[in-house]
Design a protein that fits this description.
Oligomer: single chain
Largest sheet: none
Strand content: under 5%
Length: about 300
């Protein structure tokens, strides 16, 4: 962050209770996405859940985004390859892989791995975008990587020698890599292009791309149960984390600035640990605390000037 941006952030007024609520709710809603997807894994197949999520989200987002889509239509036509290249890893692949991974691992592990995104952005930015990395950032990357290893290996380092990894953890980690690529890709989209409109266009693209995978999933015998619990899960993931959390987070960034708003995302694994214990009966282990501590330490080191 530049000195000018830091001064602007420091000059913002106090958030107050409403501002704190606006920033604290999105990570709670996103944590709920992991909990609901894990709970519904037996009722709704992962690709179908992703497709239904974005279909509901598109219906909700379109009224808010339509005027921006019309305004930015010339950009979409001229740079459609860029829109597709950015949207596939972040919107299409990310959530689908998360839902697939949650078929095989706990929601707690998924949310802890979600905390690796800031460091992955740093690493991929240096490797693929040529961004400069200083010593403290490299140290933060190493510490966070150790934290990821603790989570994926479930605290048992003998698994590394035997090459025994949790399939679900690895799938979700790939999803986090996709989100980091998406975030870096967004930096090449001009600031004048409205992000809500861009997201809505990419959601529509995602629905088209997911159709053949949904057909394959259904033909393989994996169909949703359409029970009240399954329908409730579909409505939740389609509305709460996709629409409400996005709109609240955008408002929070406008109120507090990106740096202060971004800090609240670290609440996600904290919320997740509580929710997964209450609603899924998942047991928290020492390796969860050690892994999260290392990941968070790495994030702090990587974020230092």
């Amino acid at each position: 962050m530049t000195e000018t941006n830091q001064t602007a952030e420091q000059g913002r007024p106090g958030l107050g209770w409403i501002g704190l609520a606006v920033l604290a709710l999105p990570p709670l809603f996103w944590a709920g996405n992991f909990i609901v997807a894990r709970a519904a894994r037996g009722d709704v197949p992962p690709v179908t859940l992703s497709f239904i999520r974005w279909a509901i989200a598109l219906a909700c987002l379109l009224p808010f985004a339509w005027r921006y889509i019309r305004r930015d239509a010339p950009y979409y036509r001229a740079h459609w390859r860029q829109v597709v290249a950015v949207g596939i890893p972040g919107v299409t692949a990310f959530n689908t892989l998360v839902y697939l991974g949650l078929q095989y691992t706990t929601a707690t592990n998924g949310m802890l791995l979600n905390s690796t995104i800031p460091v992955l952005i740093l690493l991929l930015g240096a490797l693929l975008w040529g961004r400069r990395m200083v010593a403290t950032q490299a140290l933060g990357l190493i510490v966070s990587t150790l934290g990821v290893a603790v989570v994926i290996l479930h605290g048992d380092w003998s698994r590394l020698i035997a090459l025994e990894f949790s399939r679900g953890d690895l799938i979700i980690f790939v999803a986090m890599v996709c989100w980091a690529i998406y975030t870096l890709g967004l930096t090449r989209v001009p600031a004048s292009v409205n992000r809500l409109g861009l997201l809505t266009v990419q959601v529509a693209l995602t629905l088209v791309l997911l159709v053949p995978f949904v057909i394959w999933e259904v033909r393989s015998g994996h169909v949703p149960s359409w029970s009240p619990a399954a329908i409730g899960a579909m409505l939740y993931v389609g509305i709460v984390p996709s629409v409400l959390a996005t709109l609240l987070y955008m408002q929070g960034v406008a109120m507090a600035g990106p740096a202060r708003a971004g800090q609240f995302i670290h609440l996600l694994p904290v919320y997740g640990a509580v929710l997964s214990t209450l609603f899924l009966g998942e047991v928290l282990h020492l390796y969860h605390a050690v892994g999260f501590g290392l990941i968070l330490t790495g994030i702090v080191l990587a974020g230092r000037k």
